[in-house]
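Onboarding guide, step 5: your first structure request.
Type a short instruction followed by the sequence, for example:

Predict the 3D structure of this protein.
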Amino acid sequence: MDDALERPQPQPATSTLDPTEEESSGDEDGGLDWTKLPKIGTVRPVIPKRGEKDFEPAPGGGSGLQVHVLDRARAAMFDALKADRAISSKSASYGIWCPQISRVHVTVARGIHFSVMGHSAARPTSIDNGPTKLQKRLELLPEEALYLIERGALFCWKDIQVDLTGLDDIEGAPMSVQQAFAEIIGKEELTLEKYQVFAYLRRLGYVVTRTDPPSPSYPVPPPRLGSDGAPLSFCRRLLSIFPLFTTSVLRFWRGSFNWWRPLRISRWIHHDKSYGKVLKSLRVITAGHSVAPHSSCATPVAPSTPYKIFYNMYKPSTNFRKTTPPQPDFQIVVINARTAFVPSLYELTELFNVLPEIPPPLPRKRGAPPVVQPSPAAVVSPVHTSTFRHLFSWLLPSSTSQPISSQPRPHPFAALKAGKKNIVIAAVDSGNISFFRFSQGAFEEWPTL
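The system replies with structure tokens like these:
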């Protein structure tokens, strides 16, 4: 036994930690056991799993056995970090960084990364020192190229303006990872925070694209079909032609609004006063996002605001095609948490104004209801309504029941939680990324009164 070992004490060691803290400490508190790594050169090294600590640090520096165990683990860690990152030449891609256009021209594309990354662009190319022609080639955005270079899946050269006559096998100066960071960060509005968000989401399996196309050849999703282009009915057209006359007639018909008597009852006709319309008349406070927030400043949102949408994000389960991308699942704003403040109401309103409305979430399917086949005797021939009842259907209540829609109505609380419009803000604080989702509620569409 080692003579420098600690001498046993008759009193047991007392723990200064709380019992609840001792029980809550799990595998995350344990360090990596680097000694379990295989020797470098025999097999491919892997990162070991976390394990339990063999001992607690002693105030006097510990015994000789503890120092020996720490030195051995430290040496194993250094040996693992000194191992060279190897990649198979059969799976490596090759590209040329063009500083003039801030793109990486991919000459050899290998691997599955290019199924969701890269786009085709037409560039003038000279063929055998002859006339130039437009040829399509695969190009990568700065964040896409830097992500592949950092992963070791892309060998990149820098396009240099040097006469390489006789050196056909040399396409430029090779770039290291450090040089790629220095050359690419800052191009095409790419900051370090935006690249960190892009790389983090790509490692998780999400597909990330630019919201604003950096070039005309960059594919973008088609615009959403909203209800703004729906044709107006005849009554709405008539109201738009004579707004003042129709407003006066409706005011005379309904009577002036009285705050002490908010329930509006018609003077002659009372058949349309259902529970829903009575409760709607009691809502004297207007709701909705159609009215812009009031501000004393002429421009409440500064032109240099950092809250601008930069990325479109797609879930891994989305059927994505990079030539015709679908509508994104999320849209992301990237900010620096050290320099940006919490978004104001005006900045959130500006973000929501450019976002389309999303449909409410469908309710969960709890099993298909049984289908009841009607008997032949229950089938009734359609009743032909008279012309008088058809013209004055708004005056005479219908005696026949309306057909019930087979589509289930969405749950109001799920729709309020999801909101009509959503935006995700990624706050980067010295490499630590936090995601916050802001949604625009639709409380006026789901009233509780």
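Each response can be followed by summary notes, for example: The two ends are 81 Å apart (CA to CA).
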